[in-house]
Design a protein that fits this description.
Radius of gyration: 19 Å
Oligomer: single chain
Shape: globular
Order of helices and strands: EEEEHHHHHHEEHHHHEEEHHEE
Strand content: 15-25%
CATH architecture: 3-Layer(aba) Sandwich
Distance between the termini: 19 Å
Amino acid sequence: MDQNVCIAHAIRAGMVDNIHRGSMVITDTKGDVLAAVGDPMKRAFIRSAGKPLQAIAFIERDGAETYGLTPPEIAIICASHSGGPEQVETVRSILKKAEVPENALQSGSGIKDNCSGKHSGMLALAKMLGHPLENYRAPDHPIQQIIRETVSEMCGLAADEITVAVDGCGAPIFGMPLKNMAVGYARLANPSDLPWPRAEACVKITASMLAHPEMVGGPDWSALAGDKIVAKSGASGCYCAGVLGKKAGFAMKIDDGSAAASLPACFEMLKRQGYVTEEEHQRFLEKYPMTVRNRAGELVGELKLVF
């Protein structure tokens, strides 16, 4: 039985235009559910929200030290970037440092693709471990096996319980219960109980993402709520966040795949549970008002949270 609930309504002229249904969950690092709306065990694909967890496999093996990567370069490995000149040059720098030819990159539309940073990290990992660069996206490639096992351990789910599919960029992506996504982010943001190489990797990834939102894409969480929330969106209405210092992680999925309600619902849920303040929530609403605008930028409606 579908236990998802109405998360938000898009309203025009006083009439409900779109209904965004879904589920959200907050867990601790051990997997205990702290709060939920809808079905915390709903299975969904983590999509690009999984990038910071996938990056751990490279960073915990001293990949950043091996190739002298900077924080912006670590951040873009976790990114859904805009494809601008600064982002493209950062990806190109990773490939150059790893001595990987640019034509080895198989990220969707190429180096400007918003997943090219993730792919550059995968190629650098393959090069560092002496594995073939060809077909590095294949689920049975050694680095993809390593990445899958890493995500499995971070999310507290056996590797064979993860559904492996193909993402928009052509790389593998993972399906799992929302609860396990939240566990992965709780541990990413609060890695003190993890083995040291992995804990250190999580700290580097989180710090790089918070310091360089221009690489990651999406909102600048540091400007909104200080350095206490690390978050990443995924395609089709997936959103994940970790709360630093609170051993808590958040995950959500909107059924219709719309991203319109994802960020507002995440911030509201974190506020209700005391992880962000009312002042921080107001700052968020000033930056991201709950409005519906047309392509001319005209105000034509509102988004109303209803959970």
